[in-house]
Specification:
Blueprint lengths: L3 H11 L3 E7 L3 E11 L2 E10 L8 H8 L7 E5 L2 E5 L3 E4 L1 H5 L3 H18 L3 H7 L5 H4 L1 H9 L6 H16 L5 E3 L8 E4 L3 E4 L5 E3 L1 H4 L1 H4 L12 H15 L3 H21 L9 H9 L8
Antiparallel strand pairs: 1-2, 2-3, 3-5, 4-5, 6-8, 7-10, 8-9
């Protein structure tokens, strides 16, 4: 594969981007700039080039399906690259939670999920579903972890998470295209269009699944979400606003927390009892209805 900066330059030329600044991150290179719409108008845009195939490789295709409903607009995209509208000022939702406004942040998430779900039954969405990962695909992470013999996560917790995940997969209601990582750092504010999602992973599942990533964030400040009262309040607020099943949302939150810890190990990080995802799993485990 060609170096990311070479691919960035090529896409900038092809898509008519006048680059003003470039940001190099661990997983991508991002160019900020403008492109001509017509003789009298320029668009402020962001070009994101993913360094290696992975979770965000098809982010442009996933975002394009939602056609600006609750997400940043996509102007051009192909595998590993996407040209987006630039969101200004682009403040992340995490700022609200860090400033004691998590109930407001939770309402904002509900609104974005509603906008996206209203569009996720479109023809383009249904076409993408055929080639998109499903939550059942992601559940394979449990088997893979168990096969390694790793003991960083208590075996009973892994098995409980796997059992819950499997039960929920087997009884899903109206699966649809989801963002897959809809949390505080992936929701940005635009002064004209409001709060919008970026950086989807893209996965097919029921809406209750979408809530899990939000509940286990902000990851940089785990003390803000690691209490049963906070988790219960967030889940009740979201399920009431979106007319979802509370018990299923609890189940997904627990099972995803265990799987999140597994993913951390896969990414090369050490995990112990202080890991925020595992702590969330221990908090939500007593809340489960095991017969889901």
């Amino acid at each position: 594969m060609r170096p990311p900066l070479d691919r960035l330059s090529e896409h900038a030329r092809t898509w008519g981007l006048k680059v003003e600044d470039v940001l190099d991150t661990e997983t991508s290179v991002i160019a900020f700039g403008t492109r001509d719409v017509n003789a009298s108008e320029n668009q402020s845009v962001v070009l994101k080039v993913i360094k290696q195939p992975g979770d965000e490789w098809h982010a442009g295709e996933v975002l394009a399906v939602f056609n600006g409903h609750g997400v940043a607009r996509v102007y051009e995209h192909e595998a590993g690259a996407v040209l987006l509208e630039r969101l200004r000022p682009g403040n992340p939702l995490v700022d609200l939670t860090l400033n004691g406004r998590d109930e407001e942040a939770t309402d904002i998430l509900a609104d974005v999920i509603q906008q996206m779900s209203n569009h996720s039954s479109s023809k383009s969405s249904l076409e993408l579903l055929q080639g998109c990962a499903t939550v059942e695909d992601w559940a394979k992470g449990f088997d893979t972890y168990i096969a390694t013999g790793d003991v960083q996560i208590p075996r009973d917790l892994v098995e409980a998470g796997q059992r819950m995940f499997g039960n929920l997969c087997a009884s899903e209601r109206r699966p649809r295209l989801l963002h897959g990582d809809l949390q505080h750092y992936n929701l940005l504010f635009d002064s004209e269009r409001g709060w919008l999602a970026i950086d989807p992973k893209g996965v097919v599942g029921e809406i209750e699944y979408e809530i899990g990533a939000f509940v286990r964030n902000p990851i940089a400040q785990p003390e803000l979400f690691l209490s049963r009262s906070t988790v219960e309040r967030q889940l009740k607020q979201l399920t009431n606003r979106l007319s979802l099943d509370y018990e299923r949302a609890v189940g997904w939150t627990f099972a995803q927390a265990v799987l999140s810890a597994i993913w951390s190990i896969e990414d090369g990080f050490a995990v112990d009892a202080t890991n925020p995802a595992l702590r969330l799993a221990e908090i939500t485990r007593p809340m489960l209805q095991e017969n889901l």
